[in-house]
Amino acid sequence: MLMAESLQRVFNGGEIVWIFPTRHIGWRSPDGNVYDIDGKLDKIALPSEDEWEAIPVSYLTENVIRDYEKNEEIDFDLFIQESLKGAFRYRDDTPSFNFTNDEIIEMFRQSYDRKEERKIYEEAVNKFCYSEEKEGED
After folding, report:
1. Would the CA dihedral through 8, 10, 12, 14 be positive or negative?
2. Rounded to 5 degrees, what are φ and ψ at 36?
């Protein structure tokens, strides 16, 4: 997040964004280009193998933003739940981001490629999906 905030200050504007479905935070310049720590990102339409969408960080909670800044242990259950809820809210507000909850969950799931992280992620997503089903039954 520090890199994104630095770019926003240096270039006097733009927007700090979550590069969905990854755990990266980036910066969108006023002309619409998106940058992360590796430089300018080329836009690839969702869903594809290298898919991403620049979602304003305002769709994430403070707890999730803090977790994005860490490279250490995080509360994965909370991180997954709040990130997915942010993606759902963005979808509800953005007609061009027209994916179902299941499609959003699957894109997010596919973004985790490290085996250890994927197992933890799978458990957290399953808990989230189960809790959503329970809420729908009430």
Report:
1. negative
2. -125, -165
